[in-house]
Amino acid sequence: MDRQRLSSIAHSHHPIAAPIFGVNLNRLLRRAGRQPAARVLDLGCGEGSWALQALAHYPDGHADGVDVSRYALERAAGAAAERGLADRLTLHERDARTYVPDGD
């Protein structure tokens, strides 16, 4: 079993694998304002928790999630489908250091 799959399994109970609480992310999104057709870029998106939260905040927005873990991106895609957001989330399996928006 590869390292990314092990990490995905080990952290499955953490909705956001970063040192920030969801309440703080919501506060940040509120402060950013609600721009029509907002575009969100989530580098190192993991399972897409931040990107999905942003899409809930920006009802006309679109998000791009970039991560090296195929397993995390599969979970992100599933979560987006469950929430009806799959058409507004584009996932990219690659190192964030090499990602170029609209130059995929």
Automatic annotation (TrEMBL):
GO terms of biological process kind: methylation
State its Enzyme Commission number(s).
2.1.-.-
Q: Which UniProt keywords apply?
A: Methyltransferase, Transferase
Q: Does the keyword Glycoprotein apply?
A: no
Q: What is this protein called?
A: Class I SAM-dependent methyltransferase
Where in the numbering of this chain does the Methyltransferase domain appear? 40-99
Keyword ATP-binding (UniProt): no
CDD domains on file: AdoMet_MTases
InterPro entries attached here? Methyltransf_25, SAM-dependent_MTases_sf
Molecular function terms, GO-annotated:
methyltransferase activity
